[in-house]
From TrEMBL:
PANTHER family: TRIOSEPHOSPHATE ISOMERASE
Pfam families: TIM
Natural source organism: Eragrostis curvula (weeping love grass)
Protein name in the entry: Triosephosphate isomerase
Pathway: Carbohydrate biosynthesis
Length: 351
């Protein structure tokens, strides 16, 4: 199990004053089984909680890859029974899911149609976004052109994957050169779905990152532990190993955003608590300080992903080392994604 001793005192002592300020502002939360509370006394809240990096929050919407089957046929195929305000999954009768989860599920199935993308883009174009936030959306490859041609320039476009090196005869792959050609400025790499379903290794992902950066494609570099790794107290070990692979390949960190996405929180509705996320973000920043440079540690943005939604983003955003979010399901709803983007305002706290 996750235990307080998992954050070594040597790691804590390496954290600078700026690092500790966010931790100290953490109110002692209700005990959570896998939560580690940093052993600092509570201090007076800062007027504005400082943020790492360029000072700009970063929010990405990962629209993932889904089929265009109709929601109803998909639900039927999945053995989902509808109730009045909830639904049950076949073979999971002990769980009754709220209707809002059904809506999220339906959205996932409907995403993947041009009409859906068009509606989402319209919502984002109409939204009022806080100025000090970098916003990126990552549609499936086949919709990138549609999105590029219809989305406001205020929001940049990312791919969800890229080929590992220079383009060539690699059937089914998309090269960094092609991303540049269609005006796609970012790519998400190291996502847990690519690590754990497709089987991409740390080294392969890091090589992709280095090549993308060499072609001026910016990288959202994902890391994160499985549930069993967290429960075995290996969260830092896993994240640091993934970080090391990136660090061995990346020389230019200015165009990198790190996304901490605990696998157990992705698409599960089990969001990491603000304290759990802050703890890992601070540790990753400390790792960067020791293993890359203090400059990179203090400038790189570390964003959180895993069941972020309009309701939980404000509390997460308050944490000093949470510099933004990578959002899956909730990024498919324009108003919710807008709320998440604008949660940067919650970094400002009462004195
Ligand atoms: O994987 C994610 C973003 O890359 C997170 O997905 P959810 O927000 O749906 O949990």
């Amino acid at each position: 199990m996750w235990a307080p001793s998992s954050l070594a005192s040597s790691q804590l002592s390496r954290l600078g004053a700026r690092d500790l300020r966010g931790a100290a502002a953490v109110a002692p939360a209700a005990p959570a089984p896998q939560q580690l509370r940093l052993g600092c006394s509570r201090r007076r809240a800062q007027r504005v909680v400082a943020m790492a990096g360029s000072g700009k929050f970063f929010v990405g919407g990962n629209w993932k890859c889904v089929s265009a089957r109709s929601a109803s046929s998909a639900l039927h195929a999945w053995g989902i029974s509808l109730l009045d305000d909830s639904f049950v999954l076949k073979n999971h009768c002990s769980f009754v899911y709220p209707a809002s989860s059904l809506w999220e599920l339906a959205l996932l199935f409907l995403n993947g149609t041009k009409d859906f993308v068009s509606k989402l883009v319209s919502e984002l174009n109409a939204a009022t976004l806080e100025p000090d936030v970098d916003v990126v959306v990552a549609p499936p490859f086949i919709y990138i052109d549609q999105v590029k041609n219809s989305l406001t320039d205020r929001i940049e476009v990312s791919a969800q994957n890229v080929w590992v090196g220079k383009g060539g005869a690699y059937t089914g792959e998309i090269s960094a050169e092609q991303l540049v050609d269609i005006g796609c400025k970012w790519v998400i790499l190291g996502h847990s779905e690519r690590r754990n379903i497709i089987g991409e290794t740390d080294e392969f992902i890091a090589k992709k990152a280095a090549y993308a950066l060499s072609q001026n494609v910016k990288v959202i570099a994902c890391i994160g532990e499985l549930l069993e790794e967290r429960e075995a107290g290996k969260t830092f070990e896993v994240c640091f190993k993934q970080m090391k692979a990136y660090a061995d390949s990346i020389t230019n960190w200015a165009d990198v955003v790190i996304a901490y996405e605990p696998v157990w929180a992705i698409g599960t509705g089990k969001v990491a608590s603000p304290e759990q996320a802050q703890e890992v973000h601070a540790a990753v920043r400390d790792w960067l300080k020791t293993n890359v440079s203090p400059e990179v540690a203090s400038s790189v943005r570390i964003i959180y992903g895993g069941s972020v939604n309009a309701g939980n983003c404000a509390d997460l955003a308050k944490k000093e080392d949470i510099d933004g979010f990578l959002v899956g399901g909730a990024s498919l709803k324009g108003p919710d994604f807008t709320t998440i983007i604008n949660s940067v305002t919650s970094k400002k706290v009462a004195a």
